[in-house]
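REQUEST FORM: STRUCTURE PREDICTION
Request ID: SP-0412
Submitted by: Lab K.M.
Chain count: 1
Length (residues): 235
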Amino acid sequence: MTAKQRELAANLERRIAAGEFSETNKLPTEDQLIEQYGVSRYCVRGAIAVLAEAGEVFPVRGSGVFVREDREGMYMPISTSYGIAADFPDRKVVSKVRELALVRADEKLAKRMRCDVDAPVWRVVRLRSVDDLPISYETAWYLKEYVPFLSEEIASGSLYRYMRDDLGLRFGFTDKVIHMGWLNAEAARHLGLEENDPAICIEDDAFLSNGRLFNASYNLYHYRNARFYSMASMR
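STATUS: Completed
RESULT:
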């Protein structure tokens, strides 16, 4: 799969998540996508294949490519990585910044971020809530090489939207590791739970379209309030 196909697939995923195709539940035709994005038919077909493999869409021969309906309720898709604000566009999403600091990468962080030791890295700790329910306690790192400026005001909103729209970053893909863990005292206090309560842990490594890692995060999810779903192909 080429970088252009990944980029187009990610763009279409964002449009799907925003509900742009909810009226017809159908993607534009190949010819329309070629015209909209100025890409080849090969690129369009590759991007659609990516979406179909992820279970986001399903092609029907002679009829077009249809969008899978989202599950209703407080569910977050684990097959996409646009952030909680994009997952719940019609809900009250609040990000409370608990820490924002520019740090120097030690050996452990440099290995995680695939950068040099002492490279400048933004560390952002946020409590994320939806409709006043705490959802996650997020610790994230962003390479200053790609994110030259951050403020508490910016971090209180959608960081991915800021990086995409204001900084012009071109997102590629995300690697996710999901496991169970236990809350430390600080995370438990912010989530309104008890120390050593169980937590859903998701570790994300986010890459640009050129394959360079720019963001890593460690997310502790509220075991009662957070729910996830994934759409998958049966082929």
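NOTES: The domain at 3-67 is CATH 1.10.10.10 (Arc Repressor Mutant, subunit A).
Reviewed by: T.R.
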